[in-house]
Amino acid sequence: MATENSPKEQNIESAQSPVVTINLVKNTGIITIDYAPVNALSQAVRIGLVHAIESLEINDDVKVIIIRCQGKTFIAGADIKEFGKPATQPYFPDVVNTIEACSKPVIASLFGTSLGGGFEVALACHYRIAYSTAKVGMPEVNLGLIPGAGGTQRLMRILGPEQALEMITSGRHISVTKFTESNLFDVITENDLDQQSQIFAQQLISDNNLTPRRVGEMSVNSSDFDWQAAKTNIIKKARGKQAPAVAFDVLEQTQKMNVSDGMAYEREQFLKLRASEQSAALIHAFAAEKQAAKLNSKAQPVEVINVGIIGGGNMGSGIATCFLTANFNVQLIEQSNEALEAGLARIKNNFSSNVKRGRMNQSAPDACLARLNSSTDYQSLSHCDLVLEAVFENIEVKKALFQKVVAVCKPETVLATNTSYLDIDEIAASINRPEQLVGMHFFSPANIMKLLEIVKADKTSEKVIATAMQVGKKLKKVSVLVGVCFGFAGNRMYTRYGREVQQMLLEGAKVEQIDNAMTNWGMAMGPLAVQDMSGIDIGHSARSAQPFPTHDKGYFRAAATLVEANRLGRKTQAGFYQYDENGKKHHAAEVDTLLFEKAQQLGIKQRIFSDEDIVQRALFALISEGLALLKAGIVQRMSDIDAIWLHGYGFPRYKGGPMFQASQIGKAQVEQKLAEFREEFSEAIWPVVDVDLLR
Ligand code: T1G
After folding, report:
1. CA nearest 542: which of 388, 390, 391, 394?
2. Which of 484, 510, 527 is the last residue of a domain?
3. pLDDT higher at 251 or 422
4. Mutate to test the pocket of ligand 1, among 41, 80, 88, 172 (most ligand atoms within 8 A of CB)
5. Neighbours of 138 (CB within 10 A)
6. Is there a single domain that holds both residue 55 and residue 139?
7. 72 CA to middle of ligand 1, Å?
8. Among the atoms of ligand 1, which is closest to the Cα of residue 287?
9. Is 299 a domain residue?
């Protein structure tokens, strides 16, 4: 936060590090960290900080020290780019201890997001001043870690074990204004932060209040805290993640220790987690998301302000909700006034549910809805920079619709289709500006799911791709660029995964066994419960529009059998499971019989499955299809597939994604397992793939 009052009076010395500088202003030594993009604690920053503290400590002109940052945020944590490399000195806990041990008061000036190691620096300072919009958090659990430089110790001392555990095990970023009841911040200000920090420093000097106030010297007040209840709750919420339970253990074990013993225990546990597969997977997931947003081209996006959305059904209204939330103006189009009313009602309902679930504050929907217009007339799209269709999946309907759109829109309007399976090249070929058409494939519910596949058709221009990616970023989606094929990247892999699940049902695996094996492994939902939820007939009719693969006699026959028996899923209270009037699912004996009979009829041999057999079949189907997609250039990079699976299909983040799993298993073993499946089920079903693409 560079302001007019940024300290620039007297540069007393240039620090050893180019990213940390020291200035002297009226007996305050001001340390400025300037390391874009987020002032992460790289080795250069750590060296600079230690040097700055040490040199200001021995400078007799300095009475108080302020640590501040340049750019858009205070320190956002350890430098994730250094993870996986050998640790370098000065080690971060030593840096933090040097700050706390300083004999002169040190003030931290917080703005933006002070996270992880950044928040630990602030906790080691003797005073904390925060800008009112600042947030703080310990997001280490999201990387499979716990705070590694005294964060567990100092936070527990300031906030008590309950709040500290909540922050550390949830990883949430919390507004500083939520801490007005605690001693975490000395000042929370809406005024110029540098000026306020200076005023605070001058007050300390004029009061001669120059003895550092160290959090590390406080004791922990945990007398009436119910550790056992907290543990049960944390383990339940962790759903397979290790780090929250380790964080709990560290706080519980160290509550009576002094800070240095507590930090030693914390460090020991931190280093164990650093070496864990879960942490590697979660760090991979973080990098995969950032990487997915990067395009190879230098094309500049066009600015999008006005967005037309055609179709106000579940998908269209969800998409409209996203755009409105992200400050775009939306023009909603429907075929009739009744359909329009229903679409508007869905959008309003999405906003009410956002408020109800605490995702939005009470007044936010009104501002969003004020940017929404609606019409049945395509002419009202004439001013739109982007027009996106979300009508039902019929290529002729979509082609006719885009004819009407191009007749009224500007030549530079970006045209987007939200199809899940249709051939975008064919739609593009039907209009006179194919370079303007792109796929923007949202996942249902569109206002909740983070994934957005940006589909590049043959003729889509780079500018249009860049625009779609930028729009995705503004919508706060994880946008991944993919090419055209049946189902694009995500649904093509999902089809392969579903195929194996269906096949296993015919080979004798039971519905509950498959779902439990997959959810115990970490998938958010079992694949068969998912099908019941979305409607078994939906996938069935999409598949029926394609030629049936003649080499594959069991191809989705389980689903077809259920559709024939009118077991369509939750909507008929009968699918792979039976549903009671409260929507609770139960075993469906009829399904066992139907599937057994179908298997007999098809001549498919029955076998006993272990949970591991089930997981391996499903996972290797994903790996195999992922490698095929990479080879065909449908995705740019292996990690893009992981980003897709983490955000669109409930793949456990702590397992990194299917391709990360493949890398962990290793090329040789992947090759061998795929060969075994090929041997058993034929090359047509388990084709040869290029395992060398694995990194
Ligand atoms: N290290 C290195 N680079 C980082 C980074 C970090 N910690 N955080 C963000 N970046 C890069 C990011 O890759 C991107 O780069 C750019 O900054 C902008 O990010 C010892 C163990 C800070 C809230 O987990 O939550 O401290 O893609 O696009 O939406 O206990 O990034 O432009 O090349 O996300 O404004 C704890 C993770 C580490 C913070 C900014 N810290 N980062 O969000 O921009 S562990 C974190 C974030 C730790 C100690 C431990 C967000 C953000 P590029 P962005 P944004």
Report:
1. 394
2. 484
3. 251
4. 80
5. 29
6. yes
7. 12
8. 13
9. no
Question: Among 112, 109, 115, which Cα is nearest to 130's?
Answer: 109
Yes or no: say if 385 and 400 are a contact pair by the CB < 8 Å rule: no
Mean pLDDT across the chain? 95
Q: Which atom of ligand 1 lies at the shortest distance from residue 151's CA?
A: 30
How many angstroms is it from 91 CA to the middle of ligand 1? 19
Residue 51 neighbours by CB distance under 10 Å: 19
Tell me, what CATH number does 87's domain have? Answer: 3.90.226.10
- Whole-angstrom Cα distance, residue 410 to residue 405? 9
pLDDT of 168 above 70? yes
Looking from the CA of residue 142, the nearest atom of ligand 1 is 24
**pLDDT > 90: what percent of the chain?**
91
* Paired tokens of 380: 């009202």
Kindly state whether residues 511 and 580 are assigned to the same domain: yes
The residues that bridge with 127 in the sheet, in sequence order, are 107
Tokens coding 193: 């932060």
The average pLDDT across 23-42 equals 97
Q: Which two tokens stand for residue 643?
A: 């980003």
Identify the domain containing residue 598 by its residue range: 491-693
Q: 591 phi and psi, to 5 degrees? A: -65, -40
- Which residue of 19, 33, 35, 38 sits with most ligand 1 atoms within 8 Å of its CB, as the best mutation to test the pocket? 38
Q: Whose CA is nearest to atom 29 of ligand 1?
A: 476
Helix or strand (DSSP H, E) at 406: helix 395-408
CA of 695 to the centre of ligand 1 (A): 24
DSSP codes joined into one string, 313-333? SHHHHHHHHHHHHTT-EEEEE
